[in-house]
Structures are given as structure tokens and as C-alpha cells.
Amino acid sequence: MLEELIKKEDYKFLSLPLSSLTYTGTYRDMVSDMIDYGITTFAFSKDWGEFKNDDEEILAETVYSAYQKVFELKKYSGSQLLKGYNRMKSIVDPFEEKYKKDAYFRVPIGLIMDAYNGNFPERKLRVYCAIRSILGCKNKFLRISYDRIRRCMLGYKNEISFNEAGHVALSDRQIGYTVRQLMEAGLLSSYTYRRRVKYYSTVYKNPEEIAEALAIRLKKKKGRVLTSEESDSIIEKYLSEV
After folding, report:
1. Cα gap 207→188, rounded to integer Å
2. Nearest-angstrom CA–CA distance, 210 and 190
3. Span 149-194, pLDDT tens digits
4. pLDDT value for 91
5. Distance CA 116, CA 45 (A)
6. Average pLDDT, whole number, for the chain?
7. Is residue 200 within 8 Å of residue 135, measured between CB atoms?
8. CB–CB of 126/107 below 8 Å?
9. How far apart are CA 135 and CA 100, in angstroms?
10. Residue 151 · residue 169 · CB < 8 Å
11. How many whole angstroms separate alpha carbon 199 and alpha carbon 239?
12. φ, ψ dihedrals at 8, nearest 5°
């Protein structure tokens, strides 16, 4: 059974392009098309062996049906699924053609279904996806500024695309409040150094773990244990260069 394969491979996340957040329809429609795009793209990218089908509609519906059984998604036909996929594709493709390869983020299917069902507010989803897109798949923690979150939560990976769009964005206070909500929900953690440098992680569960990982990173740079003054000096130098 295909659903058993999905369980075994632990496909609990959808991988989505950051530009999907530039969607201009309603929040629910955006989330619906994100689900359609994520699962359909995934269906087209895998070799499903005996479940493989050259008919894209049938293949998309087959894979989606397995997801629907495992994760209790909305019921859909292959043609409906491809409509949502193509709507999102019409946003993503021109964006990548103009600005090159987009940034991607991974979002848990359970979380995005909560958003679809009205149980996860838009601002929280956008800030969460922005931070995940910046962290990528390899970084366990990273220094992230509010300015970067501000543009990524609207779907823009760099300042050029963001400035050309001319959006009215959130204030630092609004972003900070939303980050605290995500931390309280256990979706990310943050460590602030000297009230200035903010490090974020979706892997480490508390600020102390991020601080420890940062100390290890600094230690590797010098090849020995650093004094607090040396650590401060490294971080201050880093700040002056970014």
C-alpha cells in the first residue's frame, strides 16, 4: 500500500518555495494551493515504482489519496489538485524566471492543515515559514534579523524583489510578538546575545541549547576554549561585518 510507504519514509513535511507566500488571494485559498502544490510537486519528483503513472492527473491523485488517508487531508480529485498546483505554479515560475532559484522551506503537514482549518493565524504561519526558509535544511541555528523576516514572510528572498513589490510590512514589535507566540507553541527557539544578535532554531528546543551550540562554533574557530572577552570580540567583529 502506498500509504504504508509514506508512513515508512516519514513524509511529514511539505517543501514549498518562498514565493508561494506572495499569493494575493484569501489566506485559506493560499494555504489550499500551497498544499496542492507541495504534494503534487512531491508526486512528480519521486519514482513510485508500481504506483508510477505517466498520466499526471492520475499520479497526483494516487499520491494525494495516500496522503489523505495518512494525514486526514481534505478529499480531492486529481483534476482539482492540479488546478491548485497550476495556480501556485503560475506564481512561482515567473518569480524564479525573474529572480533565479527561489528559497524553499519545509512545513509540517499537521501545521499547514491547522492553518487550512482556521486554527493557525496567517501572521504566525508567515513568520514561521520565513524563519524556516532562512534556516534552510542544513543550519541548526542561525542569526536572523527582523528585516530579513519582514521580507521573507511576504515571499521575497532578497531586498531587490521585496523593494520592487513595495509592500507595507510588519513593525519590529509585531514580528517580535509573533516570534514569542511561536516560541510559546514550541515551534522554534531563540537566543539573544547582548540584546542585539538574535539566533533562531527549529532544532534546538531552548535558548540554552542555542547558546551552547554557538559557544562550540566559536571554540572551533579558535581551536581552543575562549575567554568571555574573546567570545565577545568575535561576535562584535561579526556584527560589524554584517
Report:
1. 10
2. 7
3. 999 999 988 777 776 666 667 899 999 999 999 999 999 999 887 7
4. 94
5. 24
6. 82
7. yes
8. no
9. 19
10. yes
11. 13
12. -65, -40
